[in-house]
Write a structure and sequence with these properties.
It contains five helices and 24 strands.
Length: 441
């Protein structure tokens, strides 16, 4: 649960007194408005034009429709660079143009860090960070953070999503340290809790194959040390694993709005090889993440996700096990931890927008212009989740799966934050309230 300046403003300010609604989006339709002769981009004082154009399906010589304009508006907003994105089709004499008008965010952002690990109030963390979200106006990300308290960490990273325009290549690098409290309930029950020290350096090189597709390779070196050794916690007998790893990943992403889609699909496929003969670590993990969002009549959206990860090869140490109950959750078992070498999960969600998302301009608060445009929305949702974890050698059956179902309200806040207030029942009909700061499926 993260606390931000934005949320404090929301709680302390009466919205009707400070917000003035802008014009709503046009109704979605496939009726062609005309052929685009040229595209004009305005409002991007810092951001380069190509950053915006690379996210658009509409191009010069194509017919413009309200549906395509709405889709491109959400794709551009998903970059995380703008508080507002407006797209209009218009004419001047015989010239038909598409006007893309944006409002830029404040890109150099120092920010406090505070929250609770895994949503547990007994596990607070705090610190500070600095993010430059748009270095050189090229959508490059430069990030650094220091977190203390529960599971302290130090992170530095850089990402250039398009450093070579001709071959459409992207690259990144990261350096990190973290001290992590053991997550294995099985190991904690045997000897009590212990700590893991993770040191990591890695670099990424990839190619954007098309508007929706990318293929990348990540190389890294990792050191993991445990404070209390026991067989299986590390592969090495001295309690310190040192190994090279490499990941090949493919992504397909046609979602209109990454944080809360109403249409489109996402496919993420990855293979990670841990250890290349330089250490005793030697196992491979195969991962898949499949998501689809289908617009239905009367404004409903149906979303579905299937995800899983399996391993092969040698010993899988405790720190590389798969879990439900931390990053991945089964609603109905939201705080219950399930552990294994492999994981498989699915979820379905039916959503209905009560309100928006709409964009508003703040008139009365003394804020910089970059903070005066906010985006809000409220949706109702019903859902069903299922999942399981297992170890190699265990038989996977239908009864292995845990499931839950329920409903709730989702609040879409500025800067991509989604607050979910939900109630879920598990397959034993035990219920629980859920308050979570999470994105879409």
């Amino acid at each position: 649960m993260r606390i931000s300046f934005l949320l404090l403003l929301l709680l302390s300010t009466p919205l009707p007194a400070v917000l003035q609604a802008q014009q709503p989006d046009p109704q979605l339709a496939n009726t062609p408005l005309g052929v685009i002769d040229t595209i004009i981009i305005s409002g991007n004082a810092t951001t380069k034009d190509y950053v915006i154009l690379n996210e658009m399906t509409l191009q010069q010589g194509m017919p413009a429709t309200y549906e395509a304009m709405s889709f491109d508006r959400n794709r551009i907003y998903s970059l995380g660079l703008f508080t507002r994105v407006d797209i209009q089709y218009d004419s001047l004499g015989s010239i038909h143009f598409l006007l893309v008008d944006v409002g830029e965010r404040w890109y150099l952002i120092p920010f406090p860090i505070f929250g609770f690990r895994d949503g547990d109030p007994k596990r607070p963390y705090y610190g500070f960070g600095v993010l430059h979200n748009n270095v050189g106006g090229r959508n490059q990300k430069l990030y650094g953070s220091l977190a203390l308290g529960y599971d302290p960490s130090l992170v530095f990273s850089f990402l250039d999503p398009l450093f070579d325009h001709e071959y459409r290549l992207y690259a990144g690098a990261a350096l990190s340290f973290s001290r992590v409290r053991n997550r294995s309930a099985i190991e904690s029950a045997i000897t009590g809790s212990f700590e893991e020290y993770h040191y990591n350096i890695n670099a990424t090189l990839g190619k954007r194959l098309s508007l929706y597709q990318a293929l990348g390779v990540n190389f890294g070196y990792q050191i993991v040390q445990v404070s209390q050794y026991r067989e299986g916690r590390t592969v090495a007998a001295d309690g310190i694993d040192r190994y090279i790893y490499s990941t090949v990943n493919y992504t397909f992403d046609s979602r209109d709005l990454a944080e809360y889609p109403s249409r489109g699909s996402f496919v993420g496929l990855g293979i990670t090889k841990n250890g290349f003969g330089e250490s005793e670590v030697n196992f491979t993990r195969y991962s898949a993440d499949l998501r689809s969002f289908l617009p239905l009549p009367y404004g409903f959206t149906f979303g579905a996700r299937a995800q899983g990860s399996i391993v092969s090869g040698g010993t899988v140490p405790t720190y590389s096990h798969a879990f439900f109950g931390y990053g991945e959750r089964i609603r109905g078992y939201f705080k219950t931890v399930f552990e294994g070498e492999n994981i498989l999960g699915s979820t379905m969600e039916l959503r209905y927008p009560l309100f928006g998302p709409n964009t508003y301009r703040i008139q009365s608060l003394p804020l910089p212009s970059e903070f005066t445009v906010w985006r809000f929305g409220i949706s109702l949702a019903v859902f069903a989740d299922a999942g399981t974890t297992w170890y190699r050698g265990e038989k996977l059956t239908f009864n292995s799966f845990h499931s839950g179902y329920g409903g709730g309200v989702h609040f879409l806040l500025p800067y991509g934050y989604i607050i979910r207030v939900e109630y879920a029942w598990n397959d034993y009909r035990h219920g629980e309230f859920i308050f979570a700061l999470r994105g879409s499926l």
